[in-house]
Specification:
The protein is built from 17 helices and three strands. Helices cover 76% and strands 3% of the residues. A three-stranded antiparallel beta sheet has the order 1-2-3, with helices on one face.
Length: 445
């Protein structure tokens, strides 16, 4: 009976996820506010049904009563987050709120499944961090709407971020060959996750004041320093995110194709140089190029990921019916492979499309902002987000070498969850600021 329930619920979850994703893009076609609210309401219904079905399966397979309590705690969290945001901020972007909740929901489901299999409390820790991060970051839209001096302190963002990255390089904890985190009071955090945000603020503030050749040179030098420190720390994924974000922010601020072409050429040369200068880069590239040549060692992670994807197919094997735990660090870098194996390729593609919907919303907000500073912030944070998604999924499916970055809101990692909440809520604050301005303009006529 349990097997039958798992099989039926699998198809229902795929169908509900497809509906949710359809509404994610249907939202953009509506102009009437009531139609948009109706679409968002249907999204909420689909999400809660997916959540219920998944935890029903998890309970049936584990027979642990604690799963029921954990499920109810998550329901309370989602209700408070979705309802609380709308209660506190009248002009909130409900689509971003819904997508945040949906991505967290998928993450909680997979993390709970992996926690039970591994006998670890990964999901519980992730939930506590997410609840804390959501509560703290709820203040960010309020700050963005009322603090006007954010563009006046570019070097506070730039130097502060560089100091943190340098501290990681000099004293950071090493994880899988890269220096990524700092320990503070018995807990560790990954500064680069937060420096991504200060880096965007630094670049936006610099180009808001001037886009002269001198300013471009100074800002580029500071950006290069960030990237070089990350490369020295062997944080290749972080370095790529910083480089890509800066390059496109520079282009948007100046509309100069020469800068863009020079940046692409410089990045290509730097990538080739890194391959010959750093052994860890060669190892990752070789493991990506032919993982089957060393399947028991360097190529083990990527080959297991490909096996999981191939086994899952379009409809997945069902929760607890696959073996995603065989992929090293599956709960972090390779969570997308776990989703693909047990939830199916259709479900996994829908997760990607939801991420794309978030990026589109970021770009739409950026295009509507009047102040160049706010426009660049929304665009830069959008680039940080979509680049991270691309690097994570690209590494999982062997499109590019693995870079060790997480899938925002879905992968396990406290720093990643915190920084992604900050990123989303800063953009949410810009949306609220814009909507408030539009209402004031309408009131004047």
């Amino acid at each position: 009976m349990t097997t039958l329930i798992i099989e039926i619920s699998k198809y229902f979850m795929i169908l509900l996820m497809a509906f949710y994703t359809y509404f994610n893009f249907r939202f953009f076609s509506y102009q009437d506010l009531e139609d948009k609210k109706a679409v968002c309401g249907r999204q909420n219904q689909a999400m809660f049904l997916i959540h219920l079905l998944a935890f029903l399966v998890i309970y049936l397979k584990s027979q642990e009563e604690a799963v029921i309590g954990f499920y109810l705690a998550q329901v309370v969290f989602f209700v408070c987050y979705i309802g609380g945001f709308r209660l506190l901020y009248r002009n909130v972007s409900r689509l971003l709120v819904n997508n945040t909740a949906m991505l967290l929901c998928v993450g909680f489901i997979i993390q709970t499944r992996l926690s039970i299999e591994k006998g670890q409390a990964l999901a519980g820790k992730q939930f506590v961090v997410a609840a804390l991060a959501a509560a703290i970051s709820l203040l960010l839209p309020f700050i963005m709407d009322r603090v006007w001096q954010l563009s006046k302190i570019p070097w506070v963002y730039g130097l502060g971020g560089l100091v943190l990255l340098t501290a990681v390089w000099m004293k950071g904890n090493t994880s899988y060959g890269a220096q990524l985190s700092l320990s503070l009071g018995g807990a560790s955090f990954q500064p680069s996750e937060f420096v991504k945000i200060t880096f965007v603020f630094f670049t936006a503030a610099m180009f808001y004041h001037s886009t002269s050749f001198r300013t471009v040179c100074v800002t580029t030098a500071a950006a290069a320093a960030h990237v070089l420190v990350l490369v020295a720390s062997k944080d290749l994924g972080g370095a790529l995110i910083f480089f890509t974000t800066y390059l496109f922010m520079l282009f948007v601020a100046t509309s100069n194709w020469v800068y863009l072409g020079t940046g692409v050429l410089s990045g290509s040369v730097a990538a080739v140089a890194a391959y010959y200068l750093f052994s860890h880069v060669r190892i990752r590239v070789e493991a990506w190029a032919n993982p089957w040549a060393d399947i028991d060692n360097r190529g083990y992670q990527i080959t297991q990921s490909l096996f999981a994807i191939g086994t899952g197919g379009w409809f997945g094997s069902g929760l607890f019916q696959g073996m995603p735990y065989k992929i090293p660090v599956v709960e972090k870098d390779f969570i997308f492979a776990a989703i693909f194996e047990e939830m199916g390729g259709i479900f996994a593609v829908c997760v990607l499309l939801i991420c794309l919907g978030c990026f589109i919303q970021f770009m739409m907000i950026a295009s509507k902002m009047r102040a160049a500073f706010y426009k660049l912030i929304a665009f830069g944070l959008g680039m940080v987000y979509i680049t991270q998604v691309f690097l994570n999924v690209g590494g999982v499916v062997k499109f590019i070498p693995s870079t060790g970055v997480t899938l925002p809101f879905v992968s396990y990692g406290g720093s990643s969850v915190f920084s992604t909440f900050f990123l989303f809520h800063i953009v949410q604050g810009l949306y609220i600021l814009k909507r408030n301005e539009e209402e004031e303009d309408e009131g004047e006529f």
